[in-house]
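In response to the reviewer comment on reproducibility (Comment 2.3), we provide here a single inverse folding case reported in full, input and output, so that an independent group could reproduce the run without further information from us. The structure tokens appear first.
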């Protein structure tokens, strides 16, 4: 069995070598005060070539407790509690900024039995159902006078979409509000330590989505 932090040097070393981690990236092992997670001791090192077999874990389908996903996610059972915390925070931040919750969360996938791209001797957290890729959020129209009055802009009383690729760096007009929503959301997720790995547009290959997971190390590049 692998110790809790033993895959740390095997992952971060290659990331630095490939130029995927820079001095602007926060990368560290979880603190000893953090509650253990059942998958921390799971071996993730595999042969870099040939057929691969993903671990047989207790999996579940999750539709969303506080905000629904546009289609159910297939995840490791222990990951569900973190997703529910994410949904709750997303709902709260949306109410703060837009006056109402999202109608649905749009994701790009969860479980996928594969290696980490560019590091083929390590299992992706997606291969464990221990990760999710978030593309954005869909909002329905304001449904009542309270929601209409709480909307920060008349245009936002209608339904609208917030997407990582379209709005993360916007700084003008209504789209600046979408950027504020996305940045506030990730800041809250970091403050409340919902996930250990949070990747976004600053990380290669993640210009159009957030990647969140519970690997046995911390890596933040948003």
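Designed residues, in position order:
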């Amino acid at each position: 069995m692998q110790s809790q932090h033993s895959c740390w040097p095997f992952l971060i070393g290659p990331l630095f070598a490939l130029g995927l981690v820079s001095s602007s990236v926060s990368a560290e092992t979880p603190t000893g005060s953090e509650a253990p997670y059942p998958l921390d001791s799971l071996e993730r090192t595999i042969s870099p070539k040939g057929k691969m077999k993903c671990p047989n874990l207790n999996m579940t389908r999750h539709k969303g407790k506080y905000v629904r996903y546009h289609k159910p996610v297939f995840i490791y059972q222990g990951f569900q509690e973190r997703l529910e915390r994410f949904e709750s925070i997303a709902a709260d931040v949306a109410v703060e900024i837009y006056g109402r919750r999202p109608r649905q969360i749009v994701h790009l996938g969860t479980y996928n039995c594969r290696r980490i791209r560019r590091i083929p001797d390590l299992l992706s957290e997606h291969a464990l159902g221990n990760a999710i890729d978030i593309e954005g959020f869909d909002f329905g129209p304001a449904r009542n006078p309270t929601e209409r009055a709480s909307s920060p802009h008349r245009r936002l009383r209608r339904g609208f979409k917030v997407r990582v690729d379209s709005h993360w760096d916007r700084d003008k007009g209504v789209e600046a509000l979408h950027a504020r929503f996305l940045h506030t959301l990730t800041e809250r997720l970091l403050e409340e330590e919902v996930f250990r790995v949070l990747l976004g547009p600053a990380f290669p290959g993640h210009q159009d989505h957030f990647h969140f997971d519970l690997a046995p190390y911390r890596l933040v590049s948003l």
